[in-house]
Amino acid sequence: MKAFFEGLGSLFTDFLFIPLDFFRKLELKSWWAANTITFIFIIICCVAFVYWLKQLTIFKANNDDDQDTTAHSFLS
User: How far apart (Å, rounded) are the C-alpha atoms in residues 41 and 49?
Assistant: First the structure.
């Protein structure tokens, strides 16, 4: 069982964290380049949030959203 966990640790340390090691070394040279993935994810989340809010306003304008508190049988 000990060999299984050592193998699992080796898998993560020696193989799966190689991209993260690259970004850790890159941060010493350029902070902006090392954080480009973070910025990309932030932009994706902001775009998704704006899209979600637009969809909410569309449903609100069409009166498709059910604001009734008795929408579920356990609330009545």
Answer: 12
Please, is 29 exposed, middle or buried when counting C-beta atoms within 10 Å of its C-beta (0-12, 13-18, 19+)? Answer: exposed
C-beta of residue 10 within 8 angstroms of C-beta of residue 24: no
pTM here is 0.60
Which positions ≥6 away from 17 have C-beta within 8 Å? none
Q: Render pLDDT for 38-72 as a digit per residue (tens, 0 to 9).
A: 999 999 999 999 999 999 999 888 887 766 666 66
What is the Cα–Cα distance from 14 to 5, expressed in whole angstroms?
14
Q: What is the mean pLDDT of the chain?
A: 88
